Amino acid sequence: MAKLYSKHPNKEQISMNPKKETIDFLLNYSKALRIVKYDKMKFEALLN
Amino acid sequence: MKNQLITDATLVSNYIKGDESALGILITRHKQRIYSFVYSKVYDKDIAEDIFQDTFIKVIKTLKKGSYNEEGKFLPWVMRIAHNLVIDHFRKSNRMPKFSNSGEFSIFSVLSDSTLDAEKSLIKEQVERDVRRVIQELPEDQKEVLVMRMYNDMSFKEISEKTGVSINTALGRMRYALINMRKIIDKHNIILTN
């Protein structure tokens, strides 16, 4: 059988994960976000 | 895996109740699928990162506002948000096309600085001066036609009217002017290249 010299696709696959910084940002954002309800209105308040 | 035992629905409900760590588990659980999905559409790590972040900002806001209806479909819902943000991204980039310089193709291979550098402009001046001197060597009738055609940008019809000869004669003079210029150039070994 003929040898295939092309690279195996799996080896080329780069890590498909977001950066740790992005995750940390989201977790911190979530901790900082407060929703203030007044009457029927909702306000977003970022505490940092 | 303890984390896998807790369903998305439970984690969402815990998060809404104020358990911040539930969000961490949800993100960790689904980040690869969502990020891969976005990347498969935009093929740019930074843009994928931005869209991933915006997706979860939307998720966080919706959950905190209590606008999320839990129907046991957390992941499809997040994927739908990501999908909509990808569409928004392409809409924006269509309105504002930009050229990203990635891969082998470089924009600078297309765009070049057309202004001449000092050396080239000196050579150009020299060549033009040599050409003018060669033209001075031509017989008067040929010189006249060539100057009108090349420097004054006149048509052969205009030249024939101005000089009072037929168009064919003007064409013939132009032809002989060029032949004679080539002869002069060869004779004096003048190099007229940039």
From TrEMBL, chain B:
Residues 130-169 form the RNA polymerase sigma factor 70 region 4 type domain. InterPro entries: RNA_pol_sigma-70-like, RNA_pol_sigma-70_dom, RNA_pol_sigma70_r2, RNA_pol_sigma70_r4_t2, RNA_pol_sigma_r2, RNA_pol_sigma_r3/r4-like, WH-like_DNA-bd_sf. It comes from the Bacteria. GO terms for biological process: DNA-templated transcription initiation. One of its GO terms (molecular function) is DNA binding. This is RNA polymerase subunit sigma-24. Residues 26-95 form the RNA polymerase sigma-70 region domain. Keywords: DNA-binding, Sigma factor, Transcription, Transcription regulation. Belongs to the sigma-70 factor family. ECF subfamily.
